[in-house]
Amino acid sequence: MSETAELKLGDQKIDLPIIVGSEQEKAVDVSSLRAKTGFITLDNGYMNTGACTSAITFIDGERGILRYRGIPIEVLAEKSTFLETAYLLIEGKLPTQDQLENFTNRVRRHTMIHEDIKRFYDGFPRDAHPMAILASVVSSLSTFYQHEEVRPDSEQLSLDMVRLLAKLPTIAAGAYKKSIGQPFVYPQNHMSYCENFLHMMFSTPAERYDVDPVMTETLNLLLILHADHEQNCSTSTVRMVSSSKANLFAAITAGICALWGPRHGGANEEVIDMLLEMRASGDSVKKYIDRAKDKNSKFKLMGFGHRVYKNFDPRAKILKAACDKLLARMKISDPLLDIAKELEEAALKDSYFIERKLYPNVDFYSGIIYKAMNIPTRAFTVMFALGRLPGWIAHAKEYGEEVGNKINRPRQVYTGPTLAEYIPINNRV
Ligand code: ACO
């Protein structure tokens, strides 16, 4: 007999089914609550609401666990490539050698964007935010690849997924080139995914450019670490849009827009802004730490703390090691990075941060690494989008394949005026 939860509402008692996940997480299924009692549940900010069941990613914030399809992030970070991880997330299992070669070749063959898309870039203002360009151009893909309703698990959907994975780096690098007034660089399909992206970002037709293997390796790692994080704001948005049966390009565009916000993908940009402010002010690191501890000040150390990871963020742990390695191997000297190191060391020793389990999060190190890689600050969230794309695709696919899936349509508790009169315009005050 399956477990149920008993709910008492006034004189009424009802049983609600308990759903148990594969990692023994338990949830009360309230989907029948309104029909049985007239009540709905209210949970602002979805602090305690499971919006779906999903077999893609498992997170245990207390124990610092993150696994894609059961495989620990530490293992993938050490052994996998971004495209292999993308396959894992999307298809549900690691590819065989043949499957990986086939997938990689398919992605390779779709890296170019239609020449007419390139003309869109001419119309954007030079100072347009790269996330706005990314969202606009990805949205425009559905004007080039128009189809009637795409069935889940169809060849057409698979092709659209490949197109997105292949073209997003080209579109993102194009946005950067536009912002600095340099010509577009075409993809080089003999290069790996990450190498190709760095080449499109940093080479020019005028000079030879050899992609630094340390940068390629670091980028591969960063993209793997960002590839999925279960029901975060942008992924939930992708699932929400997919639930209306809008096409995949539209759903991914919505995900990009959700990611853009400073509460979500924009935090690593804020880390650099904070470090710039610290350098400009000339104030000591101690003074900033004191400000962050002062309850009368609204200031928080950007890049410290996490809503889900209350012990440590496993991605931050991996990135810290990568960050140290990158800075040492590239022999980078940057006063901002010196401030970051000093801040990290001071906060890790400070009892306020220790007691509250406030560790540097993934955004702290990714911000520093992107800065060291010469990625412009405004493009940091674009990098996040490149990494998160396989996760978005995997969730859209999972949603589409769910038997009996429904349009996502939350309810509300109405707090506006009760029945009101329509007053003719001349009588209104
Ligand atoms: N600096 C100083 N104090 C902090 C910080 C910080 N960065 N983060 C949390 N605290 C303090 C809080 O003031 C609170 O103190 P109190 O118990 O004395 O009242 C305590 O630590 C607990 O913090 P909460 O705010 O309750 O933690 P919550 O889970 O709500 O917030 C969050 C997590 C939003 C990430 C927060 O730590 C924060 O604002 N950090 C800075 C922004 C940041 O780096 N965001 C990126 C998150 S990672 C990601 O999105 C990929």
Task: Give your account of this protein's structure.
With 429 residues, this protein is mainly α. The protein has 18 helices and six strands. The strands form two sheets. Strands 1-2-3 form a three-stranded antiparallel β-sheet. Strands 4-5-6 form a three-stranded antiparallel β-sheet. α4 packs across α7, α7 (155-180) packs antiparallel against α18 and α14 (314-329) runs parallel beside α17. The protein is globular and about 75 Å long. The protein starts with a strand and ends in a 28-residue tail after the last helix. The model has no long low-confidence stretch (mean pLDDT 94). The site of acetyl coenzyme *A (ACO) has 15 residues, from α17.
Please indicate the percent range of residues in DSSP E strands (runs of 2 or more).
5-15%
Order of strands, widest sheet: 1-2-3
End-to-end separation in angstroms reads 63 Å
Overall mean pLDDT stands at 94
Low-confidence stretches: none
> What is the number of helical segments per DSSP (H or I, 4+ residues)?
18
Q: What is the C-alpha radius of gyration, as a whole number of Å?
A: 24 Å
Query: How many strand segments?
Result: 6
H-E order: EEEHEEEHHHHHHHHHHHHHHHHH
